[in-house]
Amino acid sequence: MNQRVRLKLMEGDRRPFVLYVASIYFLLCCGSCSVIVEGPSNVTALTGSDASFLCTVAAGWKSLSWIFNGVFAVSITSTSGAVVDSNQITVRNSTNIITGEFTSEMTVRNVNYSNSGMVQCQSLSSEPKEAFLSVQVNGSLKITNGSLTVPSNITIDLFCTFLKWYPMPRITWEINNTLASSLDYVVDFVTGKDGLVNGTSVLTLRPQDKVTVTCLASIETLPKPQSTSVEIVVKENISGAKTDNTKIIIIAVTVSVGCLLLLIIIVVVVVCCCKKKKKGTGERSFGGRYHYILGISIPRSNLEDYFGKSISCNGTEAFMQNSYRKIHYSAGAEEGHKEALSYHTEIIL
Fold first, then answer.
1. Which domain holds residue 291?
2. Which of 1, 129, 233, 330 has the fewest CB atoms in 10 Å of its CB?
3. Are 111 and 135 in contact (CB under 8 A)?
4. Is residue 244 part of a domain?
5. Full-prediction pTM beyond 0.70?
6. Cα distances (angstroms) measured from residue 109 to each of 93, 94, 165, 246
7. Mind listing the pLDDT tens digit for each residue in 297-319?
């Protein structure tokens, strides 16, 4: 009797039991259908560019949502499709025909620094998958000194200012396209209230010739470093040509003056010599007295008659000095005379 009741009860309980098992199976199946297979990855983007995120759920999914910086940005259901709540966001969806997995791609257009933050992909009966959007900012860069002209053999400082960057950029210097030593410059920076970085780099330089100096700033998302350049001109190079020209002018003037003075001296000497010739063939002798030599032709037998007497030659009165014994004989006696004597003697005027 008891066994029959027991069997009847078991037979009577079989339908509820099947329903219970079916409900558990249904719940398990639906739960597994909303599992996120692969969540989004972190993205680092440069301001002004686009940033995309992917989220994949298993086949049989019912709904999926994107949450951007704590705000529901996109809602997607398998029946109604996608609803986007921001003009900055676009969505592209696809289904794998083999596995049945559903992939949603959310793209944030023209990102700016304020877009940095958390991105979440959320589905029913599954933990949200998170990623982070980091937006980098390339600010301004300038060498504040500008192009310079400096004296030679002096040390100068060049200041490169960078403003509104994120994150802190890597600052380097180049001199004539050659990387400068990190020992030659320093970098100081501060982070503003807006989270952006401002700073200055100072390069110490001692130029010997004309150089081109370049300041460079780089961050991860920049295809190539941002740069700014100036030219440094050394004064010595500019004045060198002027100095050479000045030397040439000085030499030319000196030579000209010297030649003129030499010409004047020559003219003076020639004039003096001409005056002396006109006055007589004179020469300075001992005692500071001026003696003149007069050439006269007299018969030899009468030579003694002129000693101690005044004579006249070419209109010049002179006294014959009989103590002079220098006599020159000439064979050119005039015809009709005895042996003629060309007598040269000193006379005193």
1. 282-348
2. 1
3. yes
4. no
5. no
6. 17, 20, 20, 67
7. 444 445 455 445 545 544 444 44
